[in-house]
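Narrative progress, year one. The postdoctoral researcher (J.K.) led the effort to move from monomer predictions toward full complexes, under supervision of the PI. The following entry was the first complex the group processed end to end, covering 348 residues in total.
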Amino acid sequence: MCQDCGCGDPDVVPIDVQHRILAKNDATASHNREHFTDDGILCVNLMGSPGAGKTAVLEATARACGDARRFAALAGDLATDHDAERLRVAGIRSRAITTGQACHLDAALVHRSLHHFDLGGVDYLFIENVGNLVCPAVYDLGQAVNVVALSVTEGEDKPLKYPTMFQKADLVLLTKTDLLRHLPHVKVEKIYDALARVMPEPNVLALSSLDDAGLAEWLAWLEARRAELQVPELA
Amino acid sequence: MHEYSIVQALLDQVEAVAARNGGGTVHHIYVKLGDLAGVDSDLLQTAYETFRTGSGCDGACLTIERVPPRWVCPVCDLSLTTGAILRCSNCDEPARLAAGDEILLQRIEMEVP
């Protein structure tokens, strides 16, 4: 109550908060991460523009690995389960997350999907995010690593236009390199330069899902990240 | 347009803070938003104006303080210019983002009994 004049008006006071607005999402993401780590699963949040080649990378990954590793995937799209179906055909246990109008996945969407998804025996879970270079970068899903697919046709300065996405990437996959011979005006070194201006430690692998160039390096990178997992019973 | 989902999370958090402090009317909300947070401040403001109606924040103003990215060398603390190669020119160390990616509810102003 106002102490100054006895008018009876309530006092307006500042309340210090200093909370991350997405704290609830972050808590759910931590919960997801615990599940993945406890089960020895490397969870990869695969992001990129629509058409960057995310699904093709996963198809090529499954093709190259054969039965040596077991993969699962959650495929986020606004509509259709086409990507999940493509991944199933490629031998990846898959489930679609159809977001309707939402431009990104969040930790709760992933968590709800996991309730209906058997991850028994899986080594890698790929979360193929909604094709979008803006919104998915904001939401932690519980992944161990963020990977961004950037195709050589998207423009050399794309990292400068979407710095948040690339700044959060643990790895950038430069995809569709088989097309470079048809694109004399595209200078790969300009893409690398742009990445170095938004990523302190630019980690880039050039890859073609068509002729499998760079695929061995990508698989080795995945294996190395999986080896770093702090699985409780092994720790 | 993920700004709408950010606003929903903001409203939930403000209402929870207000309830913990006596449930009085909220007059003002202060948010800190990094330029590298991936959230557009104008769209966030628009989304807030749309969604506050009928919520516990109906009469509350939203002030957004934007925070520019600040890249520094973790060894010598040299500040790097945004847009430059993110590696220290003195130490050759990769830069660290010291500020500019936050999405924070800083404080609210509300009536208390």
